[in-house]
């Protein structure tokens, strides 16, 4: 203290705790907020899985619990907060956990009034190229064109974000212009965006949307039903979609229902997040496509065209390829543009998994090299969500070949079985590939673990589908065997299925068959020396 006249200053000092002590020993909060029901739900959830907290009347304070227990401790991959009471304050709390989080893949904030301020927090948190985040749901959050500016910057910075749901907001043509300028420039990774129910969007947006369709071939799907588009505007979009093989939703479910016969399927329960068909099954094809046989370029090209034709005819939801080489991968990517792809590696020959972009949300993928390999073999796994509800792990491998590698092959098979068993119990696991396996080797490996099923066996062990490498009916390698000599055949390719055990998912195998058994007449060859396995599951 001091006075103006005496010039004396008195300073009072007292002992306080050090800064480090204050940090390490914070003052306890007497009224620390708790939500016991929320905490119980989170603690009961699986590690690294989907955390569903929709319609729990959660508020902004609850987001601190969600972050601490759900995102940090449980490392949830998908967080569903639909239909709660979260505002921009809660969005701010959520956004702080995004930094360098390599687990979190999808956030669903539908029907929470976070408004533009909340979208800004989320977008800034996700504008990080180091994140593995994939899908953001912002339906009915009260956002306007201002939020589109934040989101455009987000997808420019983070090309990993590929799905963006923005239905039933207050977006107008200005917001569409901002978003689609970024999409059109290919300066982002977006493959699908939904804008249905934004009634302020008019024909003024048609030009920029069409430009994005033509100029960004990775951009593949848009939902724009129940907006302010005229019939002429919708027709222009439909023409552009047909020219680019684009998936376009421009007619509402109500209109579709009016156009259907009276006894047709009930669409009342199908949301705008429905996929491009009403198909009630999941189809998988697995195929060793023998990319090594490149001696005759014409024959090679005809064989690969045959493979592509089978895929396009059958339209599987997922494809496992074995014996792929880099030049062939480029061909497959060009022809199978409806699919995302993942490769075991890009050297020599390798395995790949292709997933349909319009039905799969990919959470993660991994490549695990076998410790016992002498042929650079590995296990490729893709973790995804099918049709927004079914969590599936897709696994493929090409195990060590030849009799001299029996020991390594058995160890690799046991490794794959263990990975199937260790997958979270709420997930379906499908493992297929060219396993080069004989039945006696399966016995040496300890047989199939309980809870895992060989689908050829489960579907009746039909004789016509027994041998996937059959030199008695497949003549591609005839020159490798002596005339009138023994022609071998084996069930080298096998598909194993582990159903989910903690959720009531109807995922029942209904079909097992072999594909690629029609000879390509101009070259008198089959697509490959292996038949493809095709399985179908009822949903």
TrEMBL record:
Keywords: DNA damage, DNA repair, Hydrolase, Magnesium, Metal-binding, Nuclease, Nucleus. It comes from the Eukaryota. One of its GO terms (molecular function) is metal ion binding. Its main location: nucleus. One of its GO terms (cellular component) is PML body. Gene3D superfamilies: Endonuclease/exonuclease/phosphatase (3.60.10.10), Ribonuclease Inhibitor (3.80.10.10). InterPro entries: Endo/exonu/phosph_ase_sf, Endo/exonuclease/phosphatase, Leu-rich_rpt, LRR_dom_sf, TDP2-like. It is found in: Nucleus, PML body. Its cofactor is Mg(2+); Mn(2+). GO terms for biological process: double-strand break repair. Residues 285-530 form the Endonuclease/exonuclease/phosphatase domain. This is Endonuclease/exonuclease/phosphatase domain-containing protein. The lineage of its organism: Eukaryota, Metazoa, Spiralia, Gnathifera, Rotifera.
């Amino acid at each position: 203290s001091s006075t103006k006249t005496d010039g004396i200053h008195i300073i009072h000092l007292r002992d306080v705790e050090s800064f480090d002590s204050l940090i390490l020993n914070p003052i306890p909060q007497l009224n620390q907020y708790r939500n016991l029901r929320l905490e119980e739900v989170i603690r009961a959830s699986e590690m690294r899985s989907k955390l569903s907290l929709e319609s729990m009347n959660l508020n902004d304070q609850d987001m601190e619990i969600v972050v601490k227990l759900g995102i940090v401790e449980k490392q949830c991959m998908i967080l569903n907060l639909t239909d709660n009471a979260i505002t921009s304050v809660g969005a701010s709390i959520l956004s702080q956990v995004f930094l360098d989080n390599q687990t979190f893949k999808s956030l669903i904030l539908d029907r929470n009034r976070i408004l533009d301020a909340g979208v800004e927090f989320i977008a800034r948190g996700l504008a990080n190229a180091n994140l593995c985040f994939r899908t953001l749901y912002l339906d009915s959050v009260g956002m306007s064109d201002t939020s589109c500016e934040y989101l455009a910057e987000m997808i420019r910075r983070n090309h990993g974000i590929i799905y963006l749901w923005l239905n039933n907001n207050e977006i107008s043509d200005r917001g569409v212009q901002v978003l689609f300028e970024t999409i059109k420039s290919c300066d982002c990774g977006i493959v699908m965006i939904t804008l249905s129910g934004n009634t302020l969007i008019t024909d003024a947006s048609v030009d920029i949307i069409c430009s994005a369709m033509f100029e960004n071939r990775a951009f593949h799907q848009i939902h724009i039903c129940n907006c302010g588009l005229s019939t002429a505007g919708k027709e222009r979009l439909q023409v552009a979609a047909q020219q680019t093989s684009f998936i376009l939703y421009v007619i509402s479910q109500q209109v579709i229902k009016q156009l259907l016969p009276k006894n047709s399927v009930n669409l009342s329960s199908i949301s705008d997040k429905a996929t491009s068909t009403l198909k009630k099954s999941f189809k998988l094809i697995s195929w060793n496509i023998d990319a090594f046989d490149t001696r005759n370029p014409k024959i090679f090209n005809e064989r690969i065209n045959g493979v592509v034709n089978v895929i396009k005819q059958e339209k599987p939801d997922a494809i496992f390829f074995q014996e792929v080489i880099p030049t062939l991968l480029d061909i497959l990517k060009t022809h199978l543009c409806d699919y995302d792809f993942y490769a075991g590696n890009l050297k020599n020959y390798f395995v790949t998994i292709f997933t349909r972009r319009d039905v799969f949300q990919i959470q993660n993928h991994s490549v695990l090299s076998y410790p016992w390999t002498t042929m650079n073999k590995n296990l490729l796994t893709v973790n995804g969500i099918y049709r927004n509800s079914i969590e599936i792990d897709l696994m493929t491998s090409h195990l060590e070949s030849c009799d001299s590698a029996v020991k390594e092959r058995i160890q690799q098979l046991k490794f794959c079985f263990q990975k199937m068993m260790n997958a979270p119990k709420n997930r379906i696991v499908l493992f297929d590939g060219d396993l080069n396996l004989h039945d006696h080797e399966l016995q040496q490996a300890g047989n199939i673990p309980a809870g895992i099923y060989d689908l050829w066996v489960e579907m009746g062990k039909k004789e016509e589908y027994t041998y996937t490498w059959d030199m008695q009916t497949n003549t591609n390698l005839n020159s490798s065997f002596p005339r009138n000599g023994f022609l071998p055949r084996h069930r080298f390719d096998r598909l194993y299925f582990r159903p989910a055990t903690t959720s009531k998912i109807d995922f029942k195998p209904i079909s097992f068959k072999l594909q690629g058994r029609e000879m390509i007449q101009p070259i008198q060859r089959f697509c490959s020396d292996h038949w493809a396995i095709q399985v179908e599951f009822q949903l």
